[in-house]
Write a structure and sequence with these properties.
- The structure holds 2 protein chains of 2 kinds.
- By secondary structure, chain A is mainly α.
- Helix content of chain A is about 65%, strand content about 0%.
- Chain A contains 18 helices and 2 strands.
- Chain A has a two-stranded antiparallel sheet.
- In chain A, α6 packs across α12, α13 (about 305-310) packs across α17 (about 375-390) and α16 runs antiparallel to α17.
- Chain A starts with a helix and ends in a 16-residue tail after the last helix.
- Chain B is α+β, with helices and mostly antiparallel strands.
- Chain B has 2 domains: about 1-35; about 40-185, Rieske [2Fe-2S] iron-sulphur domain (Rieske Iron-sulfur Protein, 3-layer Sandwich).
- Chain B contains 3 helices and 9 strands, in the order ααβββαββββββ.
- Chain B has helices at about 1-30, 35-40, 75-80; strands at about 45-50, 60-65, 65-70, 115, 130, 145, 150-155, 175-180, 180-185.
- In chain B, the strands form 3 sheets. Chain B has a 3-stranded antiparallel sheet with strand order 1-9-8, with no helix packed on it. Chain B has a 3-stranded antiparallel sheet with strand order 2-3-4, with no helix packed on it. Chain B has a 3-stranded antiparallel sheet with strand order 5-6-7, with no helix packed on it.
- Chain B is elongated and about 90 Å long.
- The chains are: A mainly alpha, B alpha+beta.
- The interface between A and B is medium-sized, with 35 and 33 residues.
Chain lengths: ~425, ~190
Amino acid sequence: MSSADKNLTPKNIINWISERFPINEYIHQHLTHYYLPKNLNFWYFFGSLSLFTFFLQILSGIWLTLFYTPTPEGAFTSIEMMMRDIPYGWLFRYLHSTGASAFFLIIYAHIFRSLLYGSYKKPRELVWLLGVCLYIILLLEAFLGYLLPWGQTSYWASQIGTSLLDSIPKIGPMLMVWIRGNNIVSGETLHRFFAFHVIAIPLILVFLIRLHLTALHKVGCNNPEGISVLAKQNLHNKTLYKVPFHPYYSVKEFHALLIFLLIFSIIVFFVPEMHGYFLEANNFIPANPLFTPSHIEPIWYLAPLYGVLCVIPNKSLGILIMLGVICMPFVLPWLDRSPVRSMRYRGYYSRCALAIFILSFGLFNYMSTTILTPNKIFLLQILLLNYFLFFLFMPFYTKYEKNKPLPKSICGK
Amino acid sequence: MEEDRRHLLAIIITIMAGFGIAKSSIPFLVSLQPTTETLAQATDSMEVDLTHLAPGESMVVTWQNKPIWIIRRTQAMLDNLSNIHSLLRDPDSSTEQQPFYARNEYRSLNPEYLILIGLCTHLGCSPKFKPIPGELNSKWPGGLYCPCHGSKFDLAGRVMKGVPAPINLKIPPYRFINMHTVVIGENPNLV
């Protein structure tokens, strides 16, 4: 060994590490030589944005646990104290609560992108399935975290959510008491929801995100044209149609991140409660196990599930339909019989079906947060029917529609 | 021969390891169940003084951590109960949601007092006391209304048709010591 190698220069340190750890191979494989189609548009930013939001939630979440007490006596007051007495305590709380809403908005945009360009179709079915799992686990994470402020909406949302187990035949009532650790939602429930929210579920999320990305990097990224980039080209021309993630897309996604942070900051600093959509008025009242608020306003990202339970006048059927709403996307890759991926080249049936689906889903979400009247319930039932019809008719309208001819390459012409 | 032996051993090891993991999970799962202190509350009883409860009014007490509703019904309320059978899913209380001595038109020992567990049989919210006919809509006979998913009950805690709640509200065991004192959690000495 020459004396030049023994100097502690940064280059030598990196060399020393890379001889013992595959850091260069990793960067090579997943960043500098992970090739993406040239024609990705802004819909493709939401994947990395959701990853950023996830880390933001972890960071603000860790700081919240520093000042939060998971007991019925301490939970509500510890958050109020955090908001008033801890320097920047309000910021951690608002980052976390706004971050949760932002997370769901980004995830919905991310899922919409998949529907728009057929990213769930062969060979990306597993990416889609892992994504749906992530979404369900995220709903669970949001539901568990929702109890922690120990406000009125928190309390009764958890009382409803855990009561769902009660309708399972035979073991239901036992299971419900086992999950709650008491006959009703109480201190035991709060403590375990806290533990699952801050450690168990986030670890599962990290694991699933890793699987989601691994599966994606194996099959490669789809693109707005929905065609295989290399289908008609030989491998030597790869760089004509594909560019490496770093630096080409990392620069663009950094730009998207700045735009996101601008909008996000405005909400965090000026309208963190979003007029009751991100933090509800009822949740600024401490939990009272004897008194349900007269008007329940569920948080918007849990509202559609609440809405389903409201509009089905039958307990077991309501719960089954709610599970159906959550699980329906799992079979999507096998319901879609179209030979074309992207909506750009699909026929009118598919495009109209997607438009009706998105409008129904959006309107259902919005109306579930309002006070329900008999007329609204009827409309919600129709919207719910639309949701299922989109999936159930898919094998037919995707098979018999007239598609446009596909281009020969992603660069058009 | 050697291949078969290894294959068999691998299967046995997999089964034994699975068995071991399943058994090891028991402490983790069992620890989540309610403590004996919490379970002991199921046998607790409590005395409630009803002296200050005026006719037509209601009060809420906690028993087994659950809200217990006590409603003192007026004669008009009681008379109305037999007229609304067509609105109800289970007017005769055939589902086991009450002690046998409360299985009657009024679902109570003493018709004047209705005592029930104030948790909706749909998903466990606490309903609202809406005793005035027409308070909720023009056909409302007076009763209990759950704000969470819109379930409706009459003034005997019987569930109405067309709502998510499947069965009547639950009646806890109770007995009267005298006209104005009730013990919740104990059965009466009926002869």
